[in-house]
Amino acid sequence: MFTPEKIYSVSELTGEIKALLEEEFPFIWVEGEISNFRVPPSGHFYFSLKDQASQVRAVFFRSGQGGLQFVPEDGLQVLCLGRVSVYNARGEYQLILERMELKGWGALQLAFERLKERLQKEGLFEAARKKKLPVLPRKVGVVTSPSGAAVRDFLRILFRRFTNMHVCIFPVLVQGETASREIAETLERINGADLGLEVIVLTRGGGSIEDLWAFNEERVARAIAASAIPVISAIGHEVDFTIADFVADLRASTPSAAAELLIRPQAEWQGELEGLHDDLRQALARRLERLREQTLHLRRRLGDPRRRWVEMALRLDDGALRLRLALDHNLRQKNNRLEIARERLRGRNPRERLAGHRVRLTALLGQLQDRMAGRVRERHLGLERLSRTLQALSPGAVLARGYALARTLPELTIIREAERLSPGRSLRLELARGALDCRVEKIWKEEGPSGG
Fold it and tell me: pTM for this one?
């Protein structure tokens, strides 16, 4: 009879298998599909990982679930980190998990977070470096796939808000291995060319993190940061965030939202311009009214320029007459004194004395005449300056600058307000040279024409 060297109990065999497995596979990554997922009151996760040929039990204890980024369920492809162990009670080996990620998502998410942290430390996300968008851009560049729904949504909303916007489409791949290179090179080419663009919109529709990964590439982020033209990012749906969104000067939640953020509706611009036009018209009307009042006040102060000129001429003539009378009176006094001196000097060389008096008298008269002539010239110059000022403010000078004076026929009453007339009324327009007789066809008020 054969006698075995050693006979194992079930517990001994299970214990040695457990020791071997735990020593050989301390921590391993296992990929598979979740099956038979259940959560007892303890909060631990129990399920199986399977592929097309095999399956293995797994347990994920509640204490290690703090960093889990999703809710596990049957059918999900996951990547698990754990150690191999054996459950002694059943003699089954299982995985004790330490970490679990969605297949493909974890590596991309890790790369996303690392690049985001590095670019943030460089200051590429700072608000101080972001450029302001123009209030009313005249030319917009759109970097996107020309066949996608994103560009159609963007253009539809944009042209509905503002009909005459100039848009240039720059076609690029928005997903795939070469997409990031095309996007970065297109942004660099746009900035290097003199195209007159004022804003660049970088956009595409929604998708998975793999679909949007081109916008998480470092080359795209640095091309956006280096752009001298402001960049709006409108990538994916509202919940999607990419590295391009953080670097861009403005992030729009969707392509349609980018069109709304880019420009205000045309009706708002028109309303604002109309308001400014009304304010300007009212300000000009107030200014003209003040000038009219000042002109009327000046006319009342100055009176009729011709009458003032006649008054000044009469005063000048009166002054000249008084001056001549004064000179004649002064000359008679001097002659009288000369006669008296002549009588006194008879017999004592009267001719020489008389000649001396005549010389002095002639010199005195010359000085007096010079002084009076100077005063007359000053009066004439002042009168000429005043005449020119009055002439510039006269109604004739105003008419010479292109204005006309309207009077009713046949009364010749001056018309100051159009509302006092009615269509068919006869008028006479007095111009700088001549006059015109005409008939009223339309009356223009502030709100528009009226009448026949």
Answer: 0.45
